[in-house]
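Q: Protein A?
A:
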Amino acid sequence: MDTYDMSEAVAAGAMTAYYIIAFAVYVLLIVAWWKVFTKAGEAGWKSLIPIYNLYILFKIAWGNGWIGLLMLIPCVDIVVDIMVSLKLAKAFGKSTGFGVGLILLPNIFMLILGFGDSQYIGPQ
């Protein structure tokens, strides 16, 4: 085995490890979303369906899922995304700081929301 073959093997091993870790993180995020939906009284499977899960997320955070249609308007979607993150934090009794965390590091804070001890109190 020459150096070129060995570097290919190392690269293949690194890529395989990357994909395994990425898949594990993806599954963990799916479970976190499922738990957030369940805590809010919605069926967990609703978190798996694209676009419909955003409707339900807006319903959980805002009380009205149709507000999610504002996400289709360019530039407005950024403001609405920020607002829904803040409202989602409030709906689970968290502070505005937690909402900022949902804006800046959504995957990490969604894991905290899903696996933490927070309780859904409804749209604020």
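Q: Protein B?
A:
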Amino acid sequence: MEKQIGITIIGLGPSDSQHWTMAAYKRLTQADEIYLRTAHHPSVVDILAKIHSFDAWYEQSTDFNSLYDQIAAEIVRLGQRENGVIYAVPGHPHVGEATVPRILALAEQRQLPVTIIAGLSFIEPTLTALNLNALDNLQIVDALEIANLHHPPLNPDHPALVARLYGAGIAKQVKNSLLNAYSHDYTVTLIRAADCETERVRHCPLAELDNQTDLDELTTLYLPADSANNSLVTFQETIAHLRSAEGCPWDKIQTHQSLRRYLLEETYEVLEALDANDTAALAEELGDLLLQIALHTQIATETGEFKMGDVIGQINRKMLRRHPHVFGDVVINEVSELGPIWSAIKQTEKTEKGIVPKMASALDGIQVGLPALAQTLALSKKAVSAGFEWHNMAGVLDKIVEEAREVAEATEYTHLESEIGDLFFSLVNLARWHNIDPESALRSTNARFTRRFQTMESLAMAQSKNLPDLSLEEILDLWEEAKRKTTN
């Protein structure tokens, strides 16, 4: 018998022993002793050697990462024996086998030789069962990886295989992650024991994934490509094409500055959709806003300024950095505790960027480009944090009355402009006291005024009258009627 030195890792293939390679067959049939990561594999019945499995370790473990470290350490220990060790794993040792890279790393540290004997992976028979071409942008991921995420690391525009969907519990976790990118009624396919006598292929809506039976380590989930072209990658290709030599004449000549006004326009259209509580319009307007971001980023890519990865990477790192209570070890009990934490983090960021602080002011950090009402609200909040606040609501209301009187008394244009501004500021302060967003409140009033005015125009038209021809009293009567007909 050929003497085993060091560690030999053998792939058992995807199912029964007919899928063993000739090299694997020779080693498996000649060995006296074989260690298995799991004995739950169809081909194990054809192994005549003495076998040991780590299934008992699985039953006692609550942390797979720690378990894989323990298995790897044990295999490396056994590999240091005179006759070494044969370690057999399902499929191919380099396809979804978490213990193998750990074994290779430990063995290299100890200068222990490792021989890999390939096996057919789950991929090939699954491709056969589904009549798929693996080179057609196929994505392959482990169910455990997706289960531990809140958003799947997949491009929905391309097909994907999710391996080892071994039970309802992990199927539920995988489903929840996938639903962040795919629709509830998205049809998926489950393939169990591909290329075996017990092979089973069935379809179900994604939302019903965890209600399926007979899920085990031999089960693979197939996600077909989404024909809706919903991915960011596909969208970037569209924008890059529009900016290319064979693209659109208008898109090709745009610059950061020429697009500036569209960015502002699309932002206000998003706000309009929010005000109307129109979710379909909101999705469309957010898409238009994303278009502006993608155009600016493509222009920057072409000029070597930055790429989409820089844009996403910077904001992602900022979110991780500014949420130590979620991604770090900071503990908070109240939302109010976040203010000081964020202030400290922002100050650290400025220091790291080499921004020299000027004389500290409670009003620091307010963007000058904010809309006037939003800037006023920010100023009011900042001033309050420094103790500049009324003792009660009566003080706020008295200030509004005072400013209104000063508006009435103003006689010069510049004085009147100043007093009207003061009145606006006091009204925003009142809104803050009531936790009302003044921008939203005014936009709501504008929309309400529009509805009522247009109703008034319709009432006048129904009476064969034109508003400009009516007296003030007649117009006010129509206004009151319009108010009764439009309750909000």
